[in-house]
Design goal:
The complex is a heterodimer. By secondary structure, chain A is α/β, with parallel strands linked by helices. Chain A has 2 domains: 387 residues, ABC transporter transmembrane region fold, CATH 1.20.1560.10; 247 residues, Rossmann fold (3-Layer(aba) Sandwich), CATH 3.40.50. Chain A contains 25 helices and 12 strands. The termini of chain A are far apart. Chain B is an alpha/beta fold. In chain B, the strands form 2 sheets. A 6-stranded mixed beta sheet of chain B has the order 6-7-8-3-9-10, sandwiched between helices. A 4-stranded antiparallel beta sheet of chain B has the order 2-1-4-5, with helices on one face. In chain B, strand 7, helix 25 and strand 8 form a beta-alpha-beta unit. Chain B is elongated. Classes of the chains: A alpha/beta, B alpha/beta. Chains A and B meet through helix 3, helix 4, helix 7, helix 8 and helix 9 of A and helix 3, helix 5, helix 6, helix 7 and helix 9 of B.
């Protein structure tokens, strides 16, 4: 059906060569921009099943609020109905009765508490008629006093209506806001939660700004799912049918003639839809790129300053901002353009029928209003009121048609947004939780790598069959040149990634059988990058832990050699660190990350370049305390520093993705051409020579 | 078909949770360090608005064009009600049309003259043809033009529509042109102020960077600025068109119903203005407070999200996933609650105003219908007059609402202007800064002390001379002020006391940009752009040739791993360079420093994450390039330090020792010697 219309539309388009603007839009929407269109490059074809699927996907997030939704939808329908009926009666009373002094319908006298002197004669029995005439209220017209009475009644009713309306409007603003904010909140939280568990390889290739855009802008589309995808079209179509019914009741030819005007609207819309979808994708991508760029710029301000990149950054801002703004304009322009065509069609219908209706009124042509309606409203022939009613309906019809087209266009954008939001939720994490996790052992006796192969990308292996065992109470130092895979080895233990081949075992139990939480709860890691979080010193040390006592905090800081400088800070452990801990020197940050590892008091401790930013004395102190403290733990140490390595119980030298040598310092130094020996010699080339003097 | 996968919602936080609803004005949870005030006085509001108004400078032409178009369209609207009066009275109800006997305003009389003497249906025909014509041109009878897309219930998702939806009261060809102009007008104004804010933020002082949150910066640039456009419209178009509407309505009434004593009652409408103003004025400060807090809460949500996303490796390896989700959930719920607080305040104000407005409406309806019932007016008169009443009432109430309507915008605008005004490096630039293009002698640090704004003392009475062609190593225990000392040289920080001179000229007298051009600083944290390795280097020096880039990479020891990367030098790095190991990142950031080829090169712990071989190569090449340059290295590693020409040993912000390695080691009492000996044990 839609294909058919589209074909007609295309022919229509080609034959008339519509306008330069339209083709410009199409060209813009198809312009290729490889990188930015990563996952949703080609807007998926118009498929009803896909829309239904997306709505279905949104339902779980609406479920908790379902009862409220049903409540306000039902209340809304009832209220609209009540207000419509009231409005109809009101307009008849106001225009025909009060203004033009016709007598009332029976129901109307009931509502206004008027006696039968107000009633139209045809509704009276002979006797009553006589009685009314006796009172001096004969004929078909109301008297002046009666008209004022009707007017006063109407004013009182509308006053009540307005008051109720105010209260209801207030409630109707707050209540749905609450409901929809909740729904959006659930989706947002689910998205963030999903992101937290997606593997690091995903995060490395996915820009934070894009995630922010998806969490804010794309997810917000869910608030319109119920009202615009379901209720919107249904009520509009329902309205259309009702209005058509009315018009057909007034006059069948009128109604049928109007039906035909829908054809051009549908044709044009079917043709324009793919373009609108493309423009919508463009818009969302351009804006999320803009967000990404800003986010990245703001985290790299220091580098920009040091390298004098301000002007370049500003140029990029201009470019990205312009692209985002253009894209936002073009999608809207396409919608407005389509709306314009529909408005023309609708407007012509309204104006044309107005002429016809005016003619009928002038001729006092009899209407087709069914006889039972005469009890409620007096529209037997085309008169002023019926003209107003019919004109309003035709105008309404034009509006509904145009709105329906507008709704359709916006829905395209909505679905594109929803799809982008659910993209995260539908991703399968590379590191999967086991179905039935095994409890993490309370005592860890050994940690071993068993022929582990791993590469971040398939064609670039980092580890090629690493086997290594570390036991409780021993310090294992991992040594190797930069980029040899030392940190990678440790991240496999934490299951930040999973190996492509081989196993990592804790007490001969594969780590993939434990839950992610439990592995990370039982492993403490002091990272090379010294990442701190904005917040207090205290919160950073006890990160992700439930309350820890001040004693424990102090003790951990003591071991890490951090207590001294912390106590010198203005507010001690309560001091607010700047953005990402930026107020501390690198050495201080490093000690805090060590304290963070220590306080976790886990059976496995990994120190990744723990002392790179420490001076020799501090390093010495920290390491000896750590060695003491870690006596019954499995400790891994990644470092370049000879003084640190020397004390390890076991040294593993990593080269070309394999452990090339393993043993203690003396053993390895005994190998004349050994890798480790060469490494040590390079380190001491400078200092040894000096000391010899 | 619908399966709710269990991963969808593990963290159960709802907004019914009482803990998220902190007080009306409390600002505890917003984790702002700089902008803490949520109260605005009326005078502050006024000055913010006037500044907002001045933003019109970004789009003067469009502003005038839009104004003209709106005015033109509103003039066409003066005619339409009268066409409908003709239709009602003279076509439908068949009252004969005699120009002298009917009430039409003077501007419609020429048109009326055309109709005089026509039959009812001929009149209708003429009007129908006119309508069709006008429909195409200005969209008469087709309602306005506008294209806002769906949005959410929070500021972030409302921002795009605020900037780009635009609109026109007209339709047709005219309407679509006005729509385009309107969107472009809004976009230019918002983009102008956005760009201004952005350009100020990227020139923030080194010391303010610590206190600004990335999420908050994002929020202000992306979601606060869109509100500023309304400052312009609400203060120009709105009052103008309100008054214009008032004048046209009065004109209509005067020329048509001036003879009716009841028209005088229209003056009652004027009551609307003081009524609405008095009712709403005391409430304005609540709106400002509520809006400020709502936006601060939104920024706090962004902070939480941005921080966790950007540090995912730390979060995951420390097992903070659940905690971070909960933190985000709590903040998100809190910001939604703040948003609803705003709704409550607005609904309340709307109700108060409506209650004040409506009784007058009923009184007018009563008066006018009396006239109709008693036969002094036609039914058509009623319609026209009542419409006029509605118009007048709207106008006066609109004028009364101008101030209150601006409060939301003022609150957002304040947040934008706050950081535009926040002192940054541009303010430190001396207006006639000298430009140096070469250094002949060197840099001297004279008697310098430095304190951070929060009172931490970093340097005390430092005296140091750094000569050309020299490699200086700054050595000392952690936290001794090494980085602060190095920061002085590119003017990242300015001494609180004393001066830093280059060839005898105080740095403060130099043009800062030109001076920075001569310096390069390689930070301890290796911050890379997620772009290709090549463009990471090229961005730092756009003039660098390919050979220079390759040279720099070679010197920094990058080539060995770059060869193994899939796309070599064009490999696109992951988020903040995370696809490389820390040591590799460090080498690239050193290469980036080298490629700038500047007179002064400062390296902060360049070798910390390097293996000894790489370190040796690097240090050798640093010596090599120090020809006609100054190289400053902050280091702990003896192997790096000992090859420096001069060593400055720093402790507690003071220079304790100065000289070359051999000299210092020869001195028994040297603190440096003690430091070295400890290192080698």
């Amino acid at each position: 059906m839609i294909k058919f219309f589209r074909r007609i539309g295309e022919r229509f388009y080609r034959s008339r060569a519509m306008s330069v603007l339209a083709s410009k839009l199409v060209r813009f929407s198809q312009k290729d921009s490889a990188r930015e269109l990563a996952d949703t490059s080609q807007p998926p074809p118009l498929k009803l099943s896909k829309m239904v699927r997306l709505i279905g996907r949104a339902i779980p997030f609406m479920m908790p609020m379902m009862i409220h939704m049903v409540m306000f939808v039902v209340a809304g329908v009832l209220l609209t109905l009540a207000y419509t009926i009231a409005g109809l009666i009101f307009s008849d009373l106001w225009d025909n009765k009060m203004m033009v002094n016709d007598k009332l319908q029976p129901f109307q006298t009931f509502v206004l508490l008027a006696d039968n002197t107000y009633l139209q004669p045809e509704f009276l029995t002979e006797e009553e008629l006589q009685e009314v005439e006796d009172k001096g209220f004969g004929g078909t017209d109301l008297t002046e006093a009666q008209r004022k009475y009707v007017r006063n009644g109407l004013l009182i009713y509308s006053f009540i209506g307005v008051l109720c309306g105010l209260v209801l409007t207030g409630m109707y603003t707050y209540y749905p806001a609450w409901v929809w904010q909740n729904v959006n909140h659930y989706l947002r939280v689910a998205m963030v939660e999903k992101l937290e568990y997606l593997s690091l390889s995903f995060h490395q290739s996915h820009r934070s700004g894009d995630a922010i855009y998806r969490i804010y802008q794309d997810s917000s589309m869910i608030v319109s799912v119920l009202t615009e995808c379901v209720i919107g079209p249904l009520t509009r179509i329902f309205n259309l049918i009702i209005v058509m019914g009315f018009l057909i009741a007034f006059d069948p030819i009128l109604g049928l003639a109007i039906l035909f005007t829908a054809v051009p609207m549908i044709v044009v819309t079917a043709y324009a839809t793919p373009t609108i979808r493309r423009l919508s994708v463009k818009n969302r991508v351009a804006n999320s790129e803009f967000t990404s760029r800003l986010q990245e710029t703001f985290t790299l301000l220091k580098v920009i300053k040091a390298n004098q990149m301000e002007n370049m950054t500003l140029d990029r801002f201009d470019k990205d901002s312009r692209r985002a703004l253009d894209a936002a304009l073009y999608i809207r322009f396409a919608i407005v353009g389509l709306g314009l065509i529909c408005a023309m069609v609708g407007g012509l219908v309204v104006i044309g029928f107005e002429y016809v209706l005016a003619r009928w009124t002038v001729l006092e042509r009899s209407s087709n209003v069914p006889s039972f309606m005469v009890w409620v409203v007096g529209f037997a022939v085309w008169n002023f009121a019926l003209f107003n009613q019919a004109k309003d309906r035709v105008e309404g019809l034009g509006r509904e048609g145009r709105d329906l087209v507008g709704l359709w266009c916006r829905l395209q954008d909505l679905f594109i947004g929803l799809e982008r939001a659910f993209y995260f939720l539908d991703l399968k994490p590379l590191v999967e939780e086991p179905e039935e996790p095994v409890d993490f052992p309370s005592e860890v006796d050994s940690v071993s790598w068993n022929n582990v192969h791993f590469g971040y990308e398939d064609n670039a292996p980092v580890l090629r069959g690493v086997s290594l065992e570390a036991t409780k109470g021993n310090i294992t130092a991992i040594v190797g040149s930069t980029g040899s895979g030392k940190s990678t080895l440790m991240s496999l233990l934490l299951r930040l990634y999973d190996p492509q081949q081989g196993q990592i075992l804790v007490n001969s139990q594969d780590v993939r059988t434990f839950s992610l939480e439990s592995i990370r709860e039982n492993t403490a890691l002091a990272m090379q990058k010294n990442i701190l979080f904005t917040g207090k010193v205290k919160e950073n040390i006890a990160y992700a832990l439930d309350t820890k006592s001040d004693e424990e905090l102090k003790q951990a800081a003591e071991i890490a050699g951090a207590s001294e400088f912390i106590e010198q800070l203005e507010n001690g452990y309560e001091t607010q660190l700047g953005e990402r801990g930026s107020k501390l020197s690198a050495g201080q940050r490093q000690r805090l990350t060590i304290a963070r590892a220590v306080i976790r008091d886990t059976p496995i401790l990994i120190l990744d370049e723990p002392t790179a930013s420490l001076d020799a004395q501090t390093e010495h102190e920290v390491l000896s305390r750590l060695a003491d403290w870690g006596k019954d733990k499995v400790v891994f140490l990644i470092t370049h520093r000879l003084s640190t390595i020397r004390n390890a119980d076991q040294i593993a030298f990593l080269k070309n993705g394999q452990i090339s040598e393993i043993g203690n310092h003396d053993e390895l130094m005994a190998q004349t051409n050994g890798d480790y020996r060469q490494f040590v010699e390079a380190e001491t080339v400078g200092s040894a020579a000096t000391l010899a003097e | 078909m619908v399966t709710s996968r269990d991963v969808d919602r593990k963290t159960d936080t709802t907004q019914t949770d009482h803990s998220i609803k902190s007080g009306f004005t409390s600002i505890e949870d917003f984790d702002d360090q700089l902008d803490l005030d949520s109260q605005m006085s009326n005078s502050e509001t006024w000055s913010v608005m006037v500044r907002g108004l001045k933003l019109v400078r970004y789009a003067k032409g469009l502003f005038v064009a839009k104004w003209g178009m709106r005015l033109f369209y509103s003039i066409t609207l003066l005619f339409f009600p009268w066409f409908f009066k003709v239709i009602t009275d003279h076509v439908l109800l068949g009252t004969p049309l005699v120009v002298e006997e009917v009430n039409f305003p003077p501007h419609f009389e020429p048109i009326l003259a055309v109709f005089e003497g026509m039959t009812r249906m001929d009149m209708m025909l003429v009007m129908t043809i006119t309508f069709v014509f006008l429909l195409v041109l200005i969209g008469t009878r087709a309602e306005g033009t506008g294209a806002s897309l769906y949005q959410g219930q929070d500021n972030a998702s409302r921002a795009e529509n605020a900037i780009s939806s635009g609109g026109s009261g007209a339709g047709g060809i005219f309407g679509i042109i006005e729509f385009w102009i309107d969107v472009r007008l809004t976009q230019r104004i918002v983009n102008g102020v956005r760009r201004h804010l952005f350009s100020r933020l990227i020139r923030s002082k080194m010391t303010t960077l610590d206190d600004q949150r990335t999420g908050d910066r994002l929020y202000r640039v992306l979601y606060d600025t869109p509100m500023l456009y309304t400052c312009v419209t609400e203060m120009t178009y709105a009052p103008f068109f309100l008054v214009w509407g008032l004048l046209t309505t009065l004109y209509n009434i005067w020329f048509t119903y001036g003879h009716l004593t009841e028209a005088i009652y229209m003056v009652l409408c004027a009551l609307m203005f003081p009524l609405v103003a008095i009712v709403s004025l005391p409430l304005s400060k609540y709106i400002r407070t509520v809006t400020q807090n709502q936006r601060a809460a939104g920024a706090a949500t962004t902070n939480a999200m941005e921080e966790t996303l950007d540090n995912m490796s730390a979060v995951q390896s420390l097992g903070g996933m659940k905690k971070e989700t909960e933190k985000f959930a709590q903040r998100s719920a809190h910001s939604y609650w703040r948003d609803r607080l705003q709704i409550i305040v607005w609904v309340g104000i709307g109700m108060v105003i409506s209650v004040a407005e409506w009784p007058l409406g009923f009184f007018m309806a009563w008066l006018i219908t009396n006239q109709v019932i008693e036969g002094h007016m036609t039914v058509g008169d009623f319609g026209a007059l009542f419409l006029m009443y509605m118009g007048l009432r709207g106008t006066f109430s609109g004028i009364g609402r101008v101030w209150i309507n601006l409060q939301d915008q003022a609150a957002a605008a304040r947040r934008v202007f706050y950081f535009i005004d926040y002192p940054n490096e541009d303010d430190q630039q001396s207006p006639e800064g000298k430009t140096v293009t070469s250094i002949s002698e060197g840099i001297s640090i004279r008697n310098v002390s430095f304190r951070y704004p929060d009172g931490r003392e970093a340097l005390k009475d430092v005296e140091l001379d750094i000569a050309m062609n020299e490699v200086l190593a700054i050595v000392g225990p952690t936290g001794s002020g090494k980085t602060s000392l190095a920061y002085l040289i590119p003017s990242f920080i300015q001494p609180t006391e004393g001066r830093v001179e280059v060839d005898g000229t105080d740095l403060l007298e130099l043009d800062m940009d030109a001076w920075r051009d001569m310096t390069t600083y390689v930070f301890q944290e290796h911050l890379l752009f997620s772009e290709s390795i090549r463009s990471n280097l090229a961005n730092a020096n756009p003039d660098a040739t390919d050979d220079e880039i390759m040279d720099a990479l070679e010197t920094a020891g990058c080539m060995e791993f770059i060869h193994e990367l899939p796309d070599g030098i064009d490999t696109v790095l992951g988020k903040s360079g995370d696809t490389l190991s820390v040591g590799q990142q460090q080498r690239i950031s050193i290469a980036r420093g080298l490629v700038r080829n500047s007179k002064i090169l400062i390296l902060d712990e360049p070798t910390a994450a390097l293996d000894p071989q790489t370190e040796n190569v690097l240090v050798e090449s640093l010596k090599r390039i120090s020809e006609n340059r100054i190289v400053i290295v902050i280091a702990h590693r003896l192997s790096t330090i000992r090859r420096a020409d001069k060593i400055a040993f720093l402790e507690d912000g003071k220079i304790r020792d100065y000289g070359n390695h051999d000299e210092l080691m020869a001195n028994e009492a040297s603190p440096y010697r003690a430091f070295v000996e400890l290192q080698s044990t």
